[in-house]
Fold this sequence. Notes:
The complex is a heterodimer. Chain A is an all-beta fold. Chain A is 0% helix and 50% strand. In chain A, strands 2, 4, 5, 6, 9, 10 and 11 form a seven-stranded mixed sheet that branches. A four-stranded antiparallel sheet of chain A has the order 1-3-8-7, with no helix packed on it. Helices cover 0% and strands 54% of the residues of chain B. In chain B, strands 2, 4, 5, 6, 9, 10 and 11 form a seven-stranded mixed sheet that branches. Chain B is globular, with a radius of gyration of 13 Å. At the A-B interface, β5 and β10 of A face β10 of B.
Amino acid sequence: EIVMTQSPATLSVSPGERATLSCRASQxxxxxxxxxQQKPGQAPRLLIYHTSTRATGIPARFSGSGSGTEFTLxxxxxxxxxxxxxYCQQYNNWPPWTFGQGTKVEIK
Amino acid sequence: QVQLQESGPGLVKxxxxxxxxxxxxxxxxxxxxxxWSWIRQPAGRGLEWIGRIYIGGGTNYNPSLKSRVTIxxxxxxxxxxxxxxxxxxxxxxxxxxxxxLAQGIIDFWGQGTQVTVSS
Lengths: 108, 119
């Protein structure tokens, strides 16, 4: 099973500033990585897939990069509505597809 | 727009079987584009993939749960179901159903349903 490790656990960022979230895989997942956003009491929502492709309706301030074992989600100019927990997920190796433990983004 | 809704008991006794159903609306469960998955999230923790089913293509389960899990589909009712046997407190979680693309990208989710295992 591929273990996904996210850092930091919590990120506190001022509105308008950049937020950078990291995700590391225990072995290569190529570019088969997705990011999801989860707000309290809600289901997760797909943000990015194939490392860098934004899902339908996702604002351009969200971007992804990386390959192999190191990945980054960047929120270029943090908005108040971006306060959430963000999960990475690898879908390169089954079974099973696996998730990171999440990074909580707080508005400073 | 496809929507998913989980339903089932919110409380299950230890050693019994957890049974949930996910009803698909706004689209057909027989769609060739989607695998239908179950994912769970214990309180304050991350996400765990339970398994998936593809119409006409069978099922795949997380090895850590495989001996206890069954996912099935009823195309006449446009829903799919999860059964998890011999539950314990460790199975207490919010259970989500989801529509996933073949590669494993989770395209859309149900709202989730809390299941507590307790006597």
